[in-house]
Amino acid sequence: MPLSSATQRLNQLHHQMSPSTDAFSAIPLAPADAIFALTAAYKADEFKQKVNLGVGAYRDNDGNPFVLPVVRKAKVLISQDNSLDHEYLPIAGLPTFTGASAKLIFGADSPAIKEGRVSTLQTISGTGANHLGALFLERFYGPWAGKSKAEKIIYVSNPSWANHKAIFNNVGLTSADYPYYDPKTIGLAFNEFLNFLRNVPLQSVILVHACAHNPTGVDPTREQWKEIVAIFLERGLFAFLDTAYQGFASGSLDDDAWAVRYFTEQGVPLLVCQSFAKNMGLYGERVGALSVVAAHAGDAEGGAKRIASQLLVLQRSEISNPPTFGARIAALILNDPTMFGEWKKDVSEMAFRIIEMRKQLYDLLENKLKTPAVGPNGWSHITSQIGMFSFTGLNPAQCKALVEKGHVYLTGNGRISMAGLNTGNIEYFAKCLDSAVRGTL
Question: Which one of the listed residues 73, 152, 278, 344 is annotated catalytic?
């Protein structure tokens, strides 16, 4: 029998007054990560000539993931070493890895290392290094003491790696943009950047891509770096240095570390985030490091021991101990002279393949296809940019046409991963890009 109107009303009132049984009913649906969504769309595409230029991972000339020969060698050695176990690492990570990581980025003869001023912890790749570094500053950066989240501002290049702002927001910081990329020249907005640094509040924290800027591939020259550092010193700015592509950008580990070493030598207060995802191909092993440089060693005020002690407390509460396997691979390679030499060769081969793709793409667009220029300098920005990524200068409509009509997968801001190009697909891509620029795709 149907319920009486009175009974129905009582049931409605009971439902309205009862606590919700779904504690997460108010959660909104978050948008999918743009890069991973792009990769999923690529995989679902059945077009034979499809090209994936979205993901930031190296591919060989056949378009396949590349395991470095020296990494394969290290894995074999680890598997044959019966002395190894699966015990926890120290909170700071594998000592042979952290020590070698610091020397790799600062230089083996770095005064900062020799003086005991560098505190290095193993992290969950570069993402974890950014997170831990930001968390440390949020808690302990002196000029931020007693300030609100809105006042704890970290300045980030416009554009930057998409994850930077999300990481900083999650640890209680506020991100703000600074001018870096000039879309008119498809290059560095150098004067605007310098003017920003001259006028930003004293002791501000500035995130700086130390080499192979992501996503633009636009880096300052060494002379420009010197001007930048001079203003950092003049205004007491703190450098939050992110370096995910050491060796991978130019093919030289030392050249790609030049900016970090110069900042350090000149006495700029700083920390450095390292990743071994790209230059060792250890993407899924999540191998990284965070180094904070103190004004002096020891446990006196501002000393390296105090900094290290607080980093350990933060790390313990977040991950307890970092993972072992990837760190062992990296440590073997970094500490064995023969394997280190083999790694340098592997890294340079990856870097030079990308440099060659830049040259070929430039030649196809500029000389063979005579593609109308999207900037004032023709297509020279393709070869002047550095590292894995290139900002093509394409507008959103052209990018959309490439994805939907050309089956070429790239982000809407025109960024492409040069590692996704190879001798088998570069001409197809160039022709699609040419058609997109002409509006005929």
Answer: 278
SS3 for 197?
helix
Q: What is the maximum alpha-carbon separation in the chain? A: 89
State phi, psi for 284 to the nearest 5 degrees: -80, -10
Q: Rounded to whole angstroms, how far apart are CA atoms 222 and 231?
A: 15
Cα 252 from Cα 324, distance rounded (Å): 27
278 included as an active-site residue: yes
204: CB partners within 8 A, 6+ apart: 153, 155, 235, 237, 238
Please name the residue that has the structure tokens 């994805």.
403
Active-site entry in 50, 165, 242, 343:
242
Question: Which of 263, 268, 226, 224 lies closest to 105 in space, CA to CA?
Answer: 263
Euclidean distance between CA atoms 155 and 248, whole angstroms: 25
Residue pLDDT, tens place only, 264-313: 999 999 999 999 999 999 999 999 999 999 999 999 998 999 999 999 99
Cα distance between residue 253 and residue 243, in whole Å: 11
Say if CB 429 and CB 399 are below 8 A apart: no
| Residue entry with tokens 């580990």 | 253
Q: Is the peptide bond before 215 cis (omega within 30 degrees of 0)?
A: yes
Map tokens 């030499």 to a residue: 341
Number of C-alpha atoms within 13 angstroms, CB side, residue 228? 25
Q: What kind and span of H or E run contains 50?
A: none
Helix, strand, or coil (residue 78): helix
Rounded to whole angstroms, how far apart are CA atoms 90 and 119?
A: 14
Residue 172 · residue 206 · CB < 8 Å? no
Q: Contact, 243 vs 274, CB < 8 A?
A: yes
Q: What is the pLDDT of residue 240?
A: 98
Write out pLDDT tens, residues 4-19: 676 677 666 655 655 5
- Tell how strand 187-188 and strand 205-209 pair up: unpaired
Tokens 């990329």 sit on residue? 181
Catalytic residue among 144, 161, 343, 379: 161
Residue 425 or 5, more confident: 425
Q: Which residues, in sequence order, are bridge partners of residue 242?
A: 209, 273
